[in-house]
């Protein structure tokens, strides 16, 4: 009887060991990222004609200890996801392409590529005169690599695809240099059509695990101090109204993916709601300031980009929701990443990134 109990205990331990191994190892070898400055790992650094840059101090000061082209003081959401998955950080596409072209690398990285470009939007015209790469251009770069067989399609089918874009389109809608030709609702509808096209295209190229993330409350960023009609004592309501309509459309796209794209799975990250929770109960999340940028100048430190003009930097960036006039601090990104990685449906739905990473993707022969 004792021997039988011992055998049962050994069997249970073996089963638990297998289960732990299954949970600890993920089925995602790579991440492919599309978006703007929230996700950019430094693509703009490699574009000489691009004027939207974070290639100077004090960007990167609290983690990399030098500027990397990321618009924060450290890591961003894709970086933290890599940490959770146990894979290396992705290189910016333009860096990887330069290394291949200069024979410094035999091929493109097997852990994925970051195509995001700071300042870009889902609309081609957004900040085009600044030399950024729109979502459409990012898609074309990825498509070219696939058509040239520079990336293994089986790798792509197992990988995680991340998308976040739209902040610049909507922020620029309120800059009074040109009168918008579309009303807010029609403008958002055009944006959503562009997102739908991106999802269709990356699916055709092999994407099967897709994370689509909502915009945060852009009307609350310190840079709103630059806009006519926006108050600095509270968030810019008209802008956040457009943001919420766009976010609602993004979630609708996510819900339709399994129906319109057989074999693909998508999740919706409710970034807006997560950040608003940070703002509602800041002390719980370690924030002492959720309105002013840590680094910048003027009202809300939102009148100019960090590192330019006579800027100042706070002593405790981890206590600030915003690093600069438009972008979160690394602490904010870390909290966001944890909520998206393992959060409940109020944070990310229909399930979280960790569950998505654990899924087995069946690759057709």
From TrEMBL:
Keywords: Signal. This is GDSL esterase/lipase 6. InterPro entries: GDSL (IPR001087), GLIP1-5/GLL25 (IPR044552), SGNH_hydro_sf (IPR036514), SGNH_plant_lipase-like (IPR035669). It comes from Papaver atlanticum. SUPFAM superfamilies: SGNH hydrolase. The lineage of its organism: Eukaryota, Viridiplantae, Streptophyta, Embryophyta, Tracheophyta. Pfam families: Lipase_GDSL. Residues 1-25 form the signal peptide. It comes from the Eukaryota. GO terms for molecular function: lipase activity. Belongs to the 'GDSL' lipolytic enzyme family.
